[in-house]
Structure formats: C-alpha cells, structure tokens
Amino acid sequence: MKKSISIITAIIAFVFTSNTIQANAIKSESRTTEIIEASQLQSVYDAYFNVKDALIKSDSKLTSAKATALLTAITAVKMDKLKSNEHTVWMKVVKKLTADAKNISATTDLKKQRETFKSLSKSTYDLIKVSSPDQPIYKQYCPMADADWLSKEKAVKNPYYGSSMLTCGNVVETIK
Questions:
Q1: What InterPro entries would the database entry show (predicted)?
Q2: What strands, in cross-sheet order, belong to the sheet with 170-175?
Q3: 112 within some domain
Q4: DSSP 3-state assignment of 23?
Q5: What's the Cα-to-Cα distance from 115 to each of 6, 35, 98, 126, rounded to whole Å?
Q6: pTM for the predicted model, two decimal places
Q7: How many of the other CB atoms lie within 10 Å of CB of 102?
C-alpha cells in the first residue's frame, strides 16, 4: 500500500512538473513572438528616424545611405507576423514607403530628398498610428515647408530646413 501511494505521488509530481515546464515554454514562446511582432515595424521606424536625423544635418550623402538602410528594413518586414490592423495599413503604404526610400537613396540632391521625405513621413505616420509605439512619438509640423514629420523628441529639429531654420515648427500630435 505504501509503495502504491509512493508511486502515485511520484506520478502526480512528474505530471505537475512536466505541465509547469510546458506552460513556461508556451509563455516564453508567446513573449518571443510578441517581441518579434513588435520589432517587425520598429526597425522601419528606427530607419525612418535615421533618415530624418540625416536631413536635419543637411547631409545628402548620409541621407542617401540612411534611406538605403530604410529600404532594407522595409523589405525585411514579414507581413504575416504583423497584427491585423498593422497589416491592413502596411498593405496600403508599403509601395509608397518603398518608392520614397528608393527615391531618397538614389539622389544626393538635398532639395529632392526633403521633398520626398514629406511623402515618406505621411506613410510612416499612417503606419505608426496603428501600431502601439513603445515610447511617445511626436508628429511635428513646419508651416514654412507645409509639411509634417515624426520625432522621438518633443524638441523641434526641422528636417526640411536643417540649421537654417532648425527650430521652425511645433508639435501637433503625440502618438502613444
């Protein structure tokens, strides 16, 4: 009898332990999937901000290089890993994002790069609006360029005029 009770106790302990291990593995897999999904678009956003920063510096060669990196980030996105609302917007903006990144990377004409950046900012805004950024993103507006852009910082640093009008503009929306 004691032997039977010991065996049953051992079996229960084994089943409980294996279920706990399995549950932890599922939780870990779920967290990994969430991180992968979050990073799907985060690399695109980071590359966008790098293009913006290069435009702020009025460095057309750097802007071209950063736009090439943006293009790489766009093509690396696995659409099947996006949340449904992100996927819907992605399908609407991916062609324009790709074309704008190609156009910016293909020229070292700062004026053309800045003009194309207006469209790139609009598409990126549409996308970032549906994904939940891990930090506040500021939509900023320059009345002189009649254009918006996105920034991680609340302080205005204008990519359309660089140092000649660095602080021209204001925050018009905070995306959280």
A1: DUF3347
A2: 147-151, 137-142, 170-175
A3: yes
A4: helix
A5: 77, 34, 15, 18
A6: 0.79
A7: 16
- What angle is formed at CA 10 by the lines to CA 6 and CA 13, rounded to 5 degrees? 140
Q: 79 φ, ψ to 5°? A: -60, -35
The 3-state DSSP class for residue 57 equals coil
Q: Which domain holds residue 155?
A: 39-175
Predicted pLDDT at 33: 45
Q: Which residue has the tokens 């706990």?
A: 20
Q: What is the token pair recorded at 79? A: 């659409």
The answer to whether position 13 is within a domain reads no
3-state secondary structure of 139: strand
Summarised one tens digit per residue, pLDDT across range 62-75 is 999 999 999 999 99
CB 175 within 8 A of CB 151: no
Cβ distance 127 to 87 under 8 Å? no
Q: What's the domain count of the chain?
A: 1
